[in-house]
Amino acid sequence: MGALKLVKATHPLLKKHIKQVETFDQQLKDYLADLEDTLYQEGGQAIAAPQVGIDQQIAIVDMGPDGLLQLINPDIVATSDETQEDVEGSISQPDVFGIVERPQMIKVKSFDVNGREVELTAYDDIARMILHVCDHFNGILFTDKMKREITEEELEALLEDE
To answer: SUPFAM superfamilies attached here (predicted)?
Structure first.
């Protein structure tokens, strides 16, 4: 167990519909632990199983002080009409950043590690990260939704403004 190797951005798994988890067992718990280790090793904020070559709808989102959110078979059931454009990047494409428009608020149904359904409402950055990882389950990369790519200089300027 431990950190897993990221697949290349051109890996076919990143462009296909990913299978739902059907068995909530020790292997699922191991995948979640490995994804967590990989997320921290890569310095990311979110990770989806296809990014490490696993054809399962499993993801982790780092919600900062609120801890880690585990998503298993997530389903976006509602989104706000209000949208927001912001910078996105991906550990699958470490040198690419771009402006992506996404809803500011979402409601998502998912399952916990024991197979119990959970529902949550997320806003702003957390909503953005959940939508980003859910796109991975449908073969969509953030670059497919990107309005425009930004340069490293633009990224640095945006980060300085925060």
So the answer is: Peptide deformylase
User: Does domain 12-161 bear CATH number 3.90.45.10?
Assistant: yes
Report how far residue 143's alpha carbon sits from residue 146's, in angstroms, rounded to the nearest whole number: 5
Which tokens go with 161? 């403004």
Q: What is the pLDDT of residue 162?
A: 64
Q: DSSP secondary-structure letter at 91?
A: T
Domain positions in the chain are 12-161
List Cβ neighbours of 76 (8 Å cut-off, separation of 6 or more).
Answer: 106, 107, 108, 130, 131, 134
Length, in residues, of the chain: 162
With contact defined as beta carbons under 8 Å apart, do 61 and 32 qualify?
no
Helices and strands (H and E) in the chain: how many? 4, 8
> What residue spans of the chain are helical by DSSP H?
26-42, 124-136, 142-145, 152-161
State pLDDT tens for residues 79-115. 999 999 999 999 988 889 999 999 999 999 999 999 9
Q: Decide: 72 and 28 in contact? Cβ < 8 Å.
A: yes
Nearest to 36, CA basis, from 50, 47, 23, 27 = 47
